[in-house]
Specification:
binds flavin mononucleotide, globular, TIM Barrel, 361 residues, alpha/beta, 8-stranded parallel beta barrel
Length: 361
């Protein structure tokens, strides 16, 4: 982290954020294409401590730490990113049709807050291209595919949105270890709240059940504004067999106290996202059916303490993204090294034992 922070980061931060992001994905893609290099990277960075191993929704993983959706949007660099020590890599969001996303610039760093303002609007190559790219992938790190509805820049009807998700899932599920449905809709009038409207989530889940879901499904939701929203959401999920977990998205708008121009669009990741994310993990853990459903926590994870806090609040898996930008690629190894020490300090033999330790009664 020292070298990255002192040498690489100051240079990278002089360039446009999206340009750097694209280059980083290309480097990881190049690493993944040369097995000898990828294996050497994995040897250096990989998670080996048995206390880190987790089993979630039938999937075994070498670490609970994963890469959040939005870094590798198109599944170009799964092998190279996996070599950094992640137990899973979530790609996407991918929609059934390709999309250019929002106009640029649409990604901004806030270095003093260790944050990023994201207004991508889910640009991606579309489900066919991503499925084609993943075809024949070597088994390695667990792969999650995050699915969203296509951003066409115009408001879509309820039927169109649901159909969009269903077609993308149908095309992509065979390539994934799990699916994550990003329920924040970029091209609907009510955006993040689209699926909080009564009946819509049931319609989506029903339509997916008819397709035949072959993979565990995680639903990615923004922090709930009121307890009634969470109750309504979980009631809609009900006993749907294939829903095996919930993941926390960025809250809409800007947390108070950030030095950003008032009109800058987008959501804020990194440190400022941590508080709402941790509250939501705690709320979800207290309310879900723990025998079947897990929580995937993300938002402001920069070190082992941050990851451990989310685990103790109820997260079985923890994702990060912004920390890669501020701390560099070795951040995953540092978390994987620090986590077992925190578990041992508190007398836990495994991650599983620590999940929800601060919430269980
Ligand atoms: C640049 C960027 C792009 C993102 N794109 C997506 C996306 O396409 N789909 C999604 O579900 N989440 C997306 N996210 C949210 C992340 O997956 C993650 O939930 C969030 O950033 C909180 O983690 P962090 O604070 O470690 O970044 C994005 C976040 C960032 C910073």
């Amino acid at each position: 982290m020292g070298v990255y922070r002192v040498l690489a980061r100051p240079l990278l931060f002089r360039a446009d954020a999206e340009w750097v992001h694209d280059r980083a994905v290309r480097v990881a893609e190049a690493v993944g294409k040369v097995p000898a290099v990828c294996d050497a990277v994995a040897k250096h960075y990989g998670a080996t401590d048995p206390r880190l191993a987790v089993e979630v929704a039938g999937m075994t993983m070498s670490s609970p730490i994963g890469l959040g959706a939005g870094f590798d949007k198109n599944g170009r660099a799964v092998a190279g990113l996996g070599a950094l020590g992640f137990g899973h890599v979530e790609i996407g969001s991918v929609s059934v049709d390709r999309s250019d996303g929002n106009p640029r610039p649409r990604l901004f760093r806030l270095p003093s807050d260790e944050a990023i303002v994201v207004h991508y609007g889910v640009p991606n190559d579309g489900a066919d291209a991503v499925a084609h790219r993943l075809h024949g992938r070597r088994n390695g790190v667990r792969l999650g595919i995050n699915v969203v509805n296509t951003n066409r820049g115009i408001a879509a009807s309820e039927h169109e949105v649901i159909d969009d998700y269903v077609r993308a899932v149908r095309r992509l599920q065979g390539h994934a270890d799990y699916l994550c449905l990003n329920l924040s809709c970029p091209n609907t009038e009510d955006g993040q709240h689209f699926f909080l409207r009564r009946g819509r989530l049931e319609l989506l889940l029903h339509a997916l059940a008819e397709v035949g879901i072959e993979r565990p499904v995680v639903l990615k939701v923004a922090p709930f504004a009121r307890p009634a929203e969470l109750d309504g959401f979980l009631t809609a999920v009900g006993g749907t067999e294939f829903v095996r977990g919930f993941s926390v998205n960025l809250p809409p708008g800007k947390p108070a106290g950030l030095a950003v121009p008032e009109k800058m669009p987008g959501a804020v990741s990194g440190r400022p996202a941590e508080r709402a994310a941790n509250r939501t993990i705690r709320e979800l853990y207290a309310a879900v059916d723990r025998k079947r459903q897990v929580i995937v926590g993300s938002g402001g994870v920069f070190d082992a303490d941050d990851a451990y806090r989310k685990i103790r609040l109820g997260a079985s898996l923890v994702q990060l993204l912004t920390a890669l930008v501020y701390r560099g690629p070795s951040v995953v190894r540092e978390i994987n090294r620090g986590l077992p020490e925190l578990l041992s300090r508190d007398g836990f033999a495994s991650v599983r034992e620590a999940v929800g330790a601060d919430v269980r009664t």
